[in-house]
Amino acid sequence: MNASTAPDDAETRGLAQLLTPQGMRLLDSLGPYDPDATLALSQSLRAQGHDPELVAAVLTQSRLRAKAHAKFGDFARHMVFTRDGVEQATRWSVAALHAQRFAQAGIEHVVDLGCGIGADSLALAALDRTVTAVELDPATAAVATVNLTGWPRARVVCADAQSLDLDALESGPAQGVWLDPARRVSGHGRTRRLFDPEAFSPPLSFVTDLADRGLAVGAKLGPGIPHEHVPRAAEAQWISQHGDVVEVALWFNAVRRPDVARAALVLGHDGAPRLPGAADDTLVPGDDAPGAGGGRNGDASRDGAAASSAAELTSATWESPAAEGDLLGAVGQYFYEPDGAVIRAGLVTDLAQRMGARLIHPAIAYLSSDTLVHTPLATAYEVREVLPHTVKTLKKWVREQDVGTLEIKKRGTDVTPEQLRQQLAPRGTQRATLVMTRLEQAGKERRVVLAVNLVH
Asked: What Pfam families does its record include (predicted)?
């Protein structure tokens, strides 16, 4: 964690009281967090003689544990957090994927530089790795120490990641390094994002320098990093979960797959990670598709069950097929919205080629096909109508279709969905989805609205 995102003085004082036997006993004695009962509970704990600052710290920590449940599940009940740590920590299912990379490569000793509250270190320790977790901020290092208690092969070191001698560690020389560079800086009461990789802490050049030493290196970066900033010696894997693109992980040397330059990994709604290289369930043709039920794995079900699991699309190069010829065409019976990880990885035309689909505009990440293809890598819709891009026409359509709940998607157009929804004034009883976009056919472009139904 960058010192600029370290806990403030009030949070540090609270943690100092919390991270004591008395503080932890009091925290663990509380029931599930209930925001409506916080005031009464605070008054009750103070009446019992507990220090007001400790009471505030305990109640804050109870709230953070409840918030962290979305990332860590039941593990959160036994962890300690900082406010920034909850926001910035790697989700448990994704941290498990990171740890699997090192375990599968046979890397025994991994140094987690800038470990924060210790989420990735915990995942590594759970796979029997020797872990040296390094954190610059003393309060955050103390939190990581608590979270790694019970894992004898994990050790927290309070030190500067960039000045630490990786060959002179108590657990022996580092074999692998994991980094999550700070990409935010705080000041004057607010936090702002950093977009220059050399402004990260540590900078991207520090990551590549470690890789140049031959170490097995993994680094978590923001998914919006421009492709030109990605080192070509790395494998870049964009990861999404529940529809949110959560990161791009860069992998070097022993933890890089030699035949993968970039990848989009989509974790299913159950959050269960799929090991890299596991059976590929990327595509499942629908019942009406030629060869339905075969796909790329013959035992895939036709009802689209595989579409709810994890899937990965990879490319051995940074070049993708051009959006032309068979990969560009008219709107068919089915419409697809690629997952954000596919879009971030620049694999839209690769996906279209794999699916037997086509882009409807060369610069817009929407696909279409004449037969249904189930894939976890894109959300499928059936096209009801292709409508003119005019408010008058759309308002009439909404009224005639008795629409009351209206979802508006857009890509490649400057429409503001909230304003358009007000203009269309849906007051009926039915649900509808409209997609505002552009088409290109025979070199000519036109704006259209697609009325679509989600394929379940």
From this structure: Methyltransf_25, Thump_like
